[in-house]
Write a structure and sequence with these properties.
Blueprint lengths: L3 H12 L6 H26 L4 H12 L5 E2 L1 H8 L3 H13 L3 E6 L2 E9 L1 H21 L5 H17 L14
Antiparallel strand pairs: 1-3, 2-3
Helix pairs in contact: 1-2, 2-6, 3-6, 4-5
Length: 173
């Protein structure tokens, strides 16, 4: 069975047989998979009364470990959005009572964003259904295929310059 990119590549082969466009198929498939996955995740979060970006910010704070607080810069780096976009998102989450914005006691020029109890409760309520949904999205792949895909994507991301932010510490246990 052909996917969308098989058709695109066939059209290019027909119109420009001189091109070696196999990489177009890989990049195009990654882009299409990303869009389709994002759409499905957004629909799933909507069933829980959340936007995808809301879970992203709340989940980032939750996985940072107690006391569940980060700077806007650390949130921005984790979310891969601009400082302006993260400020807008924080403002909206503050209005909903899901996070607080306070002056950093160690640096009065900086602010700290903290997950509220309500925000933490929402993350806890949505986390397992979210993972179950992702498992269903990947059900076509067996365990070995998922591990292989993760390894190949990790290799690609590292080559493209994707590195964890120093602000993304692993909570100590």
């Amino acid at each position: 069975m052909d996917d969308h990119l098989d058709r695109v590549l066939a059209q290019w082969r027909s119109e420009r047989p001189d091109l070696q466009a196999a990489s177009m198929g890989v990049v195009g498939r990654i882009q299409r998979a990303s869009r389709l996955l994002e759409r499905s995740l957004a629909e799933n979060f909507a069933r829980h009364g959340l936007e995808l970006w809301e879970f992203d910010v709340l989940g980032t704070l939750r996985r940072s470990g107690p006391p569940y607080r980060l700077t806007p810069g650390a949130l921005s780096e984790s979310s891969m959005v601009t400082a302006g976009a993260i400020t807008n998102r924080i403002d909206r989450l503050v209005r909903k009572g899901l996070v607080t914005r306070d002056t950093d006691p160690d640096s009065r020029r900086s602010v700290i964003i903290t997950l509220t109890e309500q925000g933490r409760s929402i993350v806890e309520d949505v986390l397992v259904p979210h993972i179950d949904h992702e498992d269903r999205l990947l059900a076509v792949l067996d365990r070995d295929e998922r591990e292989q895909l993760a390894a190949v994507l990790r290799k690609l991301l590292l080559e493209l310059g994707d590195r964890p932010s120093p602000a993304m510490r692993v909570p100590e246990r």
